[in-house]
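Morning run. Coffee first, then this:
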Amino acid sequence: MRVAVAGSNGLAYSIAHAISTLTYHQPKPHLTARGFQVVVVNYAVTHRENLVFKLAGLSTVISVISSAAQIDLIDAAAQAGVRRFAPAEFEGQAALRPQRDALDRGKRAALDRLQHYQTQGMQYTSFVCGILYERFAPGGMIAKGIGLRSGIGAEGDYLVHIGQKKAQIPYGANGQPATISMTSAEDVGIFVAAALGLPQWPPELRMRGDRMNASRLVDIAEAIRAVQFEKGQYNPESMESALQLSINSGEIQAQLRAIALIATAEGRFDFATPNLNSMVDVTPKRFHAWLQEAWQNH
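And here it is:
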C-alpha cells in the first residue's frame, strides 16, 4: 500500500507520522528532517502531467490542502488511477454546512468532484473530527502549524483565550450552551492511519476524542488554570448582531470569528455517532488530559 499525504502543515505531519509509524512500523527520511520522503509538486493544471506522474502507483491520497490546488490534485489522482482519496475536511459534517459558507475554502467543490470520480471507481471519504484540541493550545493551532491561512487559527480566535482568561459561550436556539465534538491532531493522524486498513470507505468517517458543551469546556480551562475567566454568553440574536457589526466595519477576522461562533451554536461541529471510533482499535486522549498537558509549563 502506497499512501501520499498532500500538504506540509502540522496536521499533515500528524497524519504522515501516524501512517509511517503505525501502519508500516519502520522509519521514513519540517518533513525531510523528520524522516519523510518529500516530493515538491506544482498543483496547477498546466503542470498536470508532472503531477500525474508523481501520483502514479499510489493507492491512497490524503489531502490537507484546499481550494483550487485540491481540485487539481483530485483530477490528477483520478487520472493516475489512485483508488482512494480523502479531501481536506477534518472539521464538521459537510451536510450541515450552508450553501454559501464563508468557512468553505473549496470544500464543497472538492466533494462534488469526488462524487463524480466515484462513478469511475475511486472511493472517497470525508474524515470528520469536529474541533481540533489544538485551537486551545498556547498560541492557538497556528502555533502547531495548523490553520495558518484560516484567519481564525490564533489563540482566542475560537471560544476561549486561555492566556487572557476570556471566553465566549455560544447558546443554541434551544437556550442551551452549544455542544461540540473534538479530537487532537495526533489522534486524527492515528484514526486516519487505522482507517487505511478498512476494506471499504463510506462517504464519511467520523472520529471523536471528546464531546461536551462550551460551558463545560470553559469550566475545564478554568480548573486547569485555577482562575475564573471573564465569560460572555451569546444567543443567536447577539451573535448575528456581532456578525453584522463586523461586516459594517469591514473587519474580516471579526467576521470569521462571529461566523465560527454561529456555526458552533447551530451544531455544525458536533455529531452524535462517531462511526470510525467503533471500526478501529484507537483510544483517543480526552480533552481534560490533553489541555492539562498542553498548559503544564505555561
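The two ends are 42 Å apart (CA to CA). Good start to the day.
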